[in-house]
């Protein structure tokens, strides 16, 4: 599905990623974990076409390394950014409809997208209850559901999530991750950056550990979870098996 080889990404003259290689297979959920500043968000932004880079990024057998962000989104790579970034002055339903612009030739009207809206409302019933509510007035958890729902309206072939649990209460995180796993079970592969390394490793199939722009470890999530070096460095010394 997604294959990256020797990816180097820069902000101006500053190199942020140093030869990253990774893969996301069909139906997989893959986690990216690491400390702040490790390059996790930079990696997602590179895949989305928002950052200058070299190397090779292939998606569905096509080289997308030099493609523009809009073209990449139309191919089905949809990113939910860190901090949600919903449109505060739009209603829930209007925010969801914005997600359809990722698809080429789709008109920005609810009537044309009723089937997609129904699917999102089934996934997140709370959004249906609040479909006429302005996004700014919703809780952080509801806004995160809205951001993911907006991405689903783009019919993603690969969904990329950047810190979905950030700033949310534990009970909301549990509910949200149940939905993320449900989305993955429908056949949508997911590449997820997550600050909660323990949670990320528990729900994902495989994971990559990033440190200062390089991959320091990779493998099955369960194996990384059981690795004492990884546990001490990223899950805390107090964590016990």
Q: Summed up, what is this model?
A:
This protein has 241 residues and is an alpha/beta fold. It has ten helices and ten strands. The longest helix has 16 residues.
Detailed description of the structure:
The protein has helices at residues 40-47, 69-75, 92-98, 114-123, 125-129, 140-152, 170-185, 197-203, 221-226, 228-235, and strands at 2-11, 14-24, 29-33, 52-59, 62-63, 77-80, 158-162, 190-193, 206-211, 214-220. The chain is of the alpha/beta class and 241 residues long. The chain folds into 2 domains: 1-76 and 159-241, Rossmann fold (3-Layer(aba) Sandwich); 88-155, no CATH class. A 6-stranded mixed beta sheet has the order 6-7-8-3-9-10, with helices on both faces. It has a 4-stranded antiparallel beta sheet with strand order 2-1-4-5, with helices on one face.
CATH superfamily membership of the largest domain: P-loop containing nucleotide triphosphate hydrolases
Let me know the average pLDDT.
Answer: 90
The first-to-last residue Cα distance is 33 Å
Which fold does the CATH topology of the largest domain refer to?
Rossmann fold
SS element count, helices? 10
Strand order of the largest sheet: 6-7-8-3-9-10
Number of domains: 2
Could you say what the CATH architecture of the largest domain is? 3-Layer(aba) Sandwich
Q: Give the helix level as a range of percent.
A: 25-40%
């Amino acid at each position: 599905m997604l294959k990256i080889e020797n990816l180097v990404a820069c902000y101006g003259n500053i190199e942020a990623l140093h030869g990253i290689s990774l893969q996301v297979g069909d139906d997989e959920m893959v986690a990216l974990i690491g400390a702040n500043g490790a390059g996790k968000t930079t990696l997602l932004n590179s895949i989305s076409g928002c950052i200058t880079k070299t190397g090779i990024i292939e998606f569905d057998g096509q080289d997308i390394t030099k493609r523009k962000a809009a073209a990449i989104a139309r191919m089905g790579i949809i990113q939910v950014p860190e901090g949600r970034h919903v449109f505060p002055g739009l209603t829930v339903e209007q925010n969801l409809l914005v997600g359809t612009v990722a698809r080429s030739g789709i008109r920005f009207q609810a009537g044309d997208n009723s089937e997609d809206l129904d699917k999102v409302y089934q996934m997140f019933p709370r959004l249906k209850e609040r479909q006429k509510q302005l996004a700014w007035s919703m809780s952080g958890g509801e806004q995160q559901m809205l951001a993911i729902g907006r991405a689903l309206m783009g019919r993603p072939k690969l969904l990329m999530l950047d810190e979905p649990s950030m700033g949310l209460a534990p009970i909301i995180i549990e509910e949200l991750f149940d939905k993320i796993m449900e989305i993955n079970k429908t056949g949508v592969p997911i590449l997820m950056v997550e600050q909660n390394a323990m949670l990320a490793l528990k729900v994902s199939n495989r994971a990559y550990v990033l440190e200062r722009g390089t991959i320091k470890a990779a493998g099955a999530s369960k194996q990384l979870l059981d690795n004492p070096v990884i546990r001490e460095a990223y899950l805390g010394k107090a964590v016990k098996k």
